[in-house]
Amino acid sequence: MERKSFQLGDVVEMKKPHPCGTNAWKVIRMGMDIRMKCTGCGHSVLLPRSKFEKRMKKVLASTDPPQS
Fold it and tell me: Rounded to whole angstroms, how far apart are CA atoms 2 and 23?
């Protein structure tokens, strides 16, 4: 299975919506765990990387670093 690619600052779509109704989350911390912030209400959640990768559908907005 191919690993999903995402970066710090990306806005991702998850499989299930947040109770506030928004399905978009911003990645604010990466490591063994992924911290993401709801773009609707601002609630932040910490998930293990394996669970995050299973629950992520796609990257909605990517923050590409400038090429030098």
Answer: 23
The answer to whether residue 2 scores a pLDDT higher than 70 is: no
Q: What is the pLDDT of residue 20?
A: 92
| Residue 43 backbone phi and psi in degrees, to 5 | -70, 135
In a domain, 2, yes or no: no
Total structural domains in the chain?
Answer: 1
Measure the CA–CA gap between 31 and 19, rounded to whole angstroms.
26
- In the chain, the percentage of residues whose pLDDT exceeds 90 is 69
β-strand partners of 47: 34
What is the 8-class DSSP label of residue 25?
A: E
